[in-house]
Amino acid sequence: MNIPNLLTVIRITLAPLIVILLMEGDYGKALLAFIAAGLTDALDGFLARVLLQKTVLGAYLDPIADKILIGSCFVTLAIVRILPGWLAVIVISRDVIIILGICILTLTDIAYEIRPVFVSKVTTTIQIITIFSVLMLKCLPGIFTPPWIHGLYWFTAALTVTSGIEYVIIWIRLINHQS
Description:
single chain, mainly alpha, 6 helices, Four Helix Bundle (Hemerythrin (Met), subunit A)
């Protein structure tokens, strides 16, 4: 296993730790673990490119690690009532749709390449910013919930839905092209 893939595995193992810290209300430590996970995400991609260590395993593992980290954070933050539940449902639903789409393409022997579309990269970034923002707000005692946070929730939801629709359109085209 190369260094980029090892960093991705570390990110996956940080997800349960973050969930536990959130459930225990230890938001400061959860924030630090989330930042560490984010750094491994940035570092694994950078090292894979610089060290010429891109692998098929990494192409699958990296988006899986993102989904585990982001999905578990959204669900847990909704359970502890820090994020609205509807936002967690939208984020998880998109990920389920993506996974189902990949399964359908695989089962029908339709060739596809694991490569995120631009709107998906932006969506992931905004989802991470949303998690980071709410954790920061929880770590700052006496700070009220700023009005902009609700705008961030809606922006995150809109991008998440747009990204999901983009993938569905791509898959429909692939399926129709094979017919």
